[in-house]
Amino acid sequence: MRKRxxxxxxxxxxxxxxxxxLYNSLKGTTSSQxxxxxxxxxxxxxxxxxxxxxxxxxxxxFHPKDSGAYTGEVSISQLKDLGIREVLVGHSExxxxxxxxxxxxxxxxxxxxxxxxxxxxxxxxxxxxxxSGDEEAFVTEQLHNxxxxxxxxQLNQVTIAxxxxxxxxTGKTASVEQADAMHGxxxxxxxxxxxxxxxxxxxxxxxxxxxxxxxxxxxxxxxIDGGLIGxxxxxxxxxxxxxxx
Length: 245
Ligand code: PGA
Prior knowledge:
By secondary structure, the protein is of the alpha/beta class. α7 packs across α9 (176-194) and α11 (212-219) runs parallel beside α12 (236-244). It has an eight-stranded parallel sheet. The chain has one domain (4-244): TIM Barrel, CATH 3.20.20.70. α11 (212-219) links the parallel β7 and β8. The radius of gyration is 17 Å and the shape is globular. The protein contains twelve helices and eight strands. Bound molecules: 2-phosphoglycolic acid. Residues 9, 163, 168-169, 207-210, 228-232 line the site of 2-phosphoglycolic acid.
């Protein structure tokens, strides 16, 4: 039985004080069945790590180079030095608004794994691809372009999050059937590339308007091992209900 993961993605929200009280309110939510983590704005990382409890604190973004002339960026080795062990890579907002290409994401995955980080790798198709019925091919290509260069041993440090772009922040969730089918497809791709054992061990999270009222149905699917939660992770009660689900 794979251990479940519920991860919050705070995106560019909250003040330091709000972030601290939200983080504090989650204390004790990790259990023997479920890991809980939060991806927080970079400026909160150090502070929340010093408050550290059972909920892991991760970074939403980083630059793959160790150091250099990259104004405004935070490097993967700076995160490591701070004590961060969890990073998010490939979120559709990074791909779309910040032009992160498959090639750059591949570099980020490699750099993060080389520094011993646990990577949550996001993939997912835009609405027009879903409407044309090409979503499986689209996601397969994202996996091959940016993730499947890793070794089988490195895959132990990876979680995949399937987030259909049309469901992110829109209130429109993929149906349980749509999510389940894509998760099965992703696990099959991993099986083809890395074999049965790796495919069975990999956790695949669903993201995109996951809320307390739909989390239970989504998480009951065999290939859905938890969620990557945006909006609902900003509200203690909602996030806790999702963790309970
Ligand atoms: P959402 O965001 O839950 O607000 O749809 C999910 C995400 O972007 O990770």
